[in-house]
Amino acid sequence: MRMKCAALAALAVLGLGFSGPVCAEERFETGFRFLLGFPSGEFRRNLDRTGLGADFSFAYHIPRTIVSAGLSFGFLIYGSESRDEPLSSTIPDLIVKVTTTNSLLLGHIFIRVQPRTGFLRPYLEGLAGFHYLTTDTSIRGHDEWGDALSSNNFNDTAFSAGLGGGTKLTLLQVRQRDRTDRAFSIDLDLGVRWLRGGKAEYLKKGSVHRENGVVTYDVYKSRTDLWLAGLGLSFSF
């Protein structure tokens, strides 16, 4: 009888432990950040410029742990040039704007370790994914809201993996009554990432040459190592 009572008491404690705070604690997180991208090593020597862009993420908090797993997608613009051209030799009076843009698209899965409570919550993360480098040319009228035609000039993909870290500062949080777990929150997210990118071929600003109706490219090849610095907001619920 004593053993049965003890077993029932233990089950009751476990039931309370697993059914109480879980209802209130945040399970999911989504966010966006503005990015600065700093190429490193030979990648830096070839590009010699800082990229501007943004990233978006979604994560799942593993219950009763400080571990999260998620996906992150972003982009950087590391070169752009525009010029005005007649639409064709037979329609010289119709001028269009021709823009060539060099972009780097980023896609990663990540595992993050971060405290679940506190005003200031530092984190560490590991990432694995890809870098997609692309150069595209588009034309549109001088009405910037009009439709555009575009064509891809060059692209390549490289594997990427790295580490990141940062901190989140609570701006707003909502708790359920008599609970210490956060049920919803908005945080300021400040972080950096180091990404070791594989070798890829790519173009940069000024790599596209046009002469007598023929287009040629100056193609560069190197590792695509990259530092990222981001500032944005995250929403946990």
Explained architecture:
There is one protein chain. The chain has 237 residues and is mainly beta. It has a single domain, classed as Porin (Beta Barrel). The chain is 10% helix and 67% strand. The protein is built from two helices and twelve strands. The protein has helices at 2-19, 42-47; strands at 28-39, 51-61, 67-88, 91-113, 120-140, 149-175, 182-197, 199-202, 208-211, 214-217, 220-223, 226-236. The strands form three sheets. The chain has an eight-stranded antiparallel beta barrel. Strand 2 and strand 3 form a beta hairpin. 23% of the residues are buried. Mean pLDDT is 86; it is low at 1-24.
Q: Termini separation (Å)?
A: 44 Å
Give the low-confidence spans: 1-24
Q: Which structural class do the helices and strands define? A: mainly beta
Shape: elongated
Strand order of the largest sheet: 1-2-3-4-5-6-7-12
Average pLDDT taken over every residue: 86
Helical segment tally?
Answer: 2
Order of helices and strands: HEHEEEEEEEEEEE
| DSSP E strands, number | 12
- Output the CATH topology: Porin
Query: Strand percentage, roughly?
Result: over 45%
Number of domains: 1
Question: How would you summarize the topology of this molecule?
Answer:
Blueprint (H helix, E strand, L loop, with lengths): L1 H18 L8 E12 L2 H6 L3 E11 L5 E22 L2 E23 L6 E21 L8 E27 L6 E16 L1 E4 L5 E4 L2 E4 L2 E4 L2 E11 L1
Antiparallel strand pairs: 1-2, 1-12, 2-3, 3-4, 4-5, 5-6, 6-7, 7-12, 8-11, 9-10
Features:
Porin; disordered N terminus; two-stranded antiparallel ribbon; mainly beta; 237 residues; 2 helices
